[in-house]
Design goal:
By secondary structure, the protein is of the alpha/beta class. Helices cover 31% and strands 20% of the residues. Helix 3 crosses helix 8.
Length: 307
């Protein structure tokens, strides 16, 4: 027997949240891990090999978070720029640690070929609270546009703006998790005063290409690299992944710029969003990080060969 999902515990069904509901939501958010210990200290360990840049600071009440980027030390103006971003959704752990693992283990392979710019944890407040939104209940990954309401997105766009015309490739590292269905989508529906429509979480890795400027060969090169490490998400019975038609094995498309997504902010020739599935019984945290790292390497290799 089908039963209606339980109402989200904040707000009145059918009515968008106001200040009181947002304040109640914020009061329920608890720090569960340390940005300083898990991310900043890992970045500091890279100091001998890269240039570290503080590109902004978040202030939420008494909490302050430096926003950090890592650049190639041998930066050469004539070389193309490769942009790697992670942690736009703070709860998507392998995006953060996969970006850092790439720098530690593979960045040296590209010295003299590209300039690397990596922002491994775009949303540190959300990283600590294992959440999708920032402290204002705003999704940074729908906020990469002019006059952004999310400082996380605005700060990253300011960092990237001087380089925008030189960026060859941008890969944005994400996860799709079971809590998308149990917490974050219900919360989104409640926040916006809309009904929650249950969906399915795909079991496996997939990519989101740009429907306005697709790059199918680029996407498949990444899929082929990642499938050596973890399994690729199949389409559902309707031929879709997470509600969108699968256009190639493990690939769907969104209009990246129109939706204000991070991967659409540069207009680079090669762009993608990775989606790792950490809740699969067939994947470990180490595999998830390795899959993100392999995706970055494959993306750079393809862009260099075809750019």
């Amino acid at each position: 027997m089908n039963t209606a999902p339980a109402a989200y515990p904040i707000g009145t069904p059918g009515e968008p949240w106001g200040d009181a509901e947002r304040a109640e939501w914020l009061s329920r958010q608890v720090r569960q891990r340390s940005y300083q210990a898990e991310v900043l200290m890992a970045i500091e360990r890279l100091d001998s090999r890269f240039d570290l840049e503080r590109y902004g600071e978040l202030r939420y009440g008494a909490d302050q978070y430096p926003l950090m980027a890592i650049r190639s030390r041998d930066w050469q103006e004539e070389l193309p720029v490769v942009l790697v971003t992670g942690g736009v959704h703070g709860y998507e752990t392998s995006g953060v640690h996969g970006a850092l693992q790439f720098l530690d283990e593979h960045a040296a392979d590209y010295e003299g070929q590209v300039n690397l710019l990596v922002a491994p944890c775009v949303s540190p407040w959300a990283y600590e609270r294992i959440h999708r939104w920032n402290a204002h209940a705003i999704d940074p990954n729908r906020s990469f546009r002019a006059d952004s309401p999310a400082e996380e997105a605005a700060a990253l766009m300011r960092l990237v703006a001087p380089l925008r015309d030189r960026i060859l490739m941008h890969i944005d590292l994400h996860e799709t998790t079971d809590t998308d269905e149990t917490e974050f989508r219900p919360a989104l529906a409640a926040r916006d005063g809309e009904p929650f429509e249950p969906g399915d979480i795909p079991d496996g890795f997939y990519l989101v290409d740009d429907s306005e400027r697709p790059s199918p060969g680029f996407q498949q090169a990444i899929i082929q690299a990642v499938e050596k490490i973890t399994h690729i998400a199949p389409a559902d019975a309707q031929g879709k992944i997470i509600g969108s038609p699968m256009v190639a094995p493990g690939v769907i498309e969104y209009p990246l710029q129109s939706l204000g997504l991070c991967a659409g902010m540069t207009g680079a020739p090669f762009t993608t969003t990775t989606e790792v599935y950490p809740d699969s019984p067939r994947a470990t945290p180490e595999q998830c990080n390795a899959a993100q790292t392999a995706a970055v390497c494959a993306a750079i290799d393809y862009a260099l060969a075809n750019g």
